[in-house]
Amino acid sequence: MKIECYDTCSLLLNVNNLFSEDKEDGIILIPSICLEELENIKTSSTKDPDIKASARQILKKLDNHYNDYKIWLYEEEMSKELLEHGFTLSNDLKIIACALDAKNYFPDDDFVFITNDLLCKHIALMFLNNVEAIGVEEDDYDGYKEVYLDTDDMANFYSTIDNNVFNLLVNEYLLVYDSETLKCVDRLRWNGNGYKHLNYDNFRSRFFGPVGPMKDDCYQQLVADSLTNNKITMIKGPAGSGKTYLSLGFLMYKLEKGDIDKIIVFCNTIATKHSAKLGFYPGTRDEKLLDSQIGNLLISKFGSRMIVEKMIEEERLVLLPLSDIRGYDTSGMKAGIYISEAQNMDIDLMKLTLQRIGEDSICIIDGDCKTQVDDAHFAGINNGMKRASQVFRGEDIYGEITLKNIHRSKIALIAEKM
Question: Quick one: how far is CA 394 from the chain centroid?
């Protein structure tokens, strides 16, 4: 008999197929933690209405099919084995613990744990043999390829440099390493007709001074080239890798140069995952945004709240929450669009956002869709940042780079291992 155990994300995504007539006979298991999460989503005052609607829909379906599934009650003892491996107790870990306990209860059956979260999948695979990540495809596109060549290979490559021997997409980069020294010796971009060497300078503005790649970081060099040569650039990477540093440095450079007239920050103010929510903020829309995470980001980069407020007052900086974006059009504004924390957007919201951008504007998308997604509704197949990458890669106006090196501090570098 097949036993299917679901996590919360997979329930929300699989609501229409969970009890379909053509579904294979078996037992559906739902950890009790999932019901708690669904109820919290349904009643939350801070969740997106679409997310809340999905939670209500699945809870109603569970009520209508009460005899077609079993609830697996979580008990603290179930997490003991997982905690012994050094994991931090979270709802995801409790769900995996329920699945592991259920698997031990049904040792001879065809047991499968179903999730929509890659991190949850990888942890579960340490303890369970059969794990399915519905709607989640491993996507290893970083916007560049790295190749290690010896002397002969390098000679052959440069003798046929107009041939796309590494099968790059348009505007995809190539990092060439010496196979003996392991040093990066060249950085190239495929433009559809041949490889081009990087073309960028440091972004110099009166406000930030020179902004450019730190410590000869070859990945940041790719970002600088893409920002210089493309209409839209997606920058991915962990906290402290320089996404915001390069993005705002470039936009201020363009603003002072007169290439753009204003910077528009599109922001989706989602509370950080597993954090307490502070509720209502008093004040105007801008005051509320400056009290949120996007305000913290801008104030930390510009140096003070007063500077940010002055730029807003002068209309050189516009903060636009995505809740107000429908009907917005940047055509004629000659704007630099900055989409921050873009991992917290689903496909529909990302599509709507990008459709607001006029021909005379440029756009930077930054985020970390691998480790910093703060809401289950934006994970896996629903993630707008991932989908935008899949749609835009290979277009002649688009570049994408995944940053790998953390420069913020030694503490930040060590913390990445947690």
Answer: 19
